[in-house]
Amino acid sequence: MAQWHKFVLYYLWIAPHVLLAAVPVLMFARRLHKNFPVFFVYAIYETFGFALRFFAYVSSPAPKTLYRQVFIATLVGSIALRFGVIQELFQAIFRDYPRLEMLAVASRRWLTGVLVLAGVWSALYFAGPRPDDLMSGIALFDRSVAIIQVGLLFFLFLFSRWFGLSWRSHVFGIALGFAIFATTELAAWAIRLADLSESAKNWLDLLPTGSYHVSVLLWLGYLLAAEKPLPAMPSAAPDLDQWRGELERYPQ
């Protein structure tokens, strides 16, 4: 491995988590932890999770073995919190549309259940006698969560104007940061399926950590900037009200 590649790889592994430590501090200072408590916990969890992984990597005589165990343990909590952040963002989007929120929650639960079952099946199917087999299965489970995050971004771009959600809102910024990282991770995984040279693989290894760096900077930028809500478009609001009125006719 070239010296420059090793330096960049370490930088993109460490720097985003150092910057991420400022996210909960900034949220607490601006009282935003009350609006997004799950995201607040996620930022704290990821910061301490990285500290544990880094300590396991540099302190163990067999860093790969201990790091793998710590990585799996912290990844489980990270996946659970990412699901929680997605639910938190959905609730913020549909706050003014309670009947539509019921439909969104029901649809999200079915989708989440299917993806969780698929992820668990993948982890068990690919788990073998070697530790790398288990890591492959867990990585597939992690990608199923990334698919949900990408879907959330698509939803926000499609309906943000209808629901009066500004691209300068904190909800949009948090979701966009997750989606950038998730989309890049899925793209990198798809590219790895091709027959790549060692040089291309080295460059590809930088994409997920690099995109997470961008996501953290994006979160900090949105938290530092003043939120400016965008009123819903006049033509879209009546359509939503009519839609909600039609739903009211159906019994619960």
Question: Describe it for me?
Answer:
By secondary structure, the protein is mostly helical. The protein has one domain (7-243). The protein is 80% helix and 0% strand. The protein has helices at residues 3-20, 22-29, 37-59, 63-93, 98-126, 131-159, 170-192, 198-224, 236-248. The N and C termini lie far apart (61 Å).
Features:
single chain, 252 residues, mainly alpha, 9 helices, globular
Principal-axes geometry comes out as globular
Number of DSSP E strands = 0
| Low-pLDDT segments | 127-131, 230-238
- What Rg do the Cα atoms give? 20 Å
Strand content: under 5%
List the helices and strands and how they pair.
Elements: H1 3-20, H2 22-29, H3 37-59, H4 63-93, H5 98-126, H6 131-159, H7 170-192, H8 198-224, H9 236-248
Helix pairs in contact: 1-3, 1-8, 2-3, 2-8, 3-4, 4-6, 5-6, 6-7, 7-8
Précis, in short:
This protein is an all-alpha fold and 252 residues long.
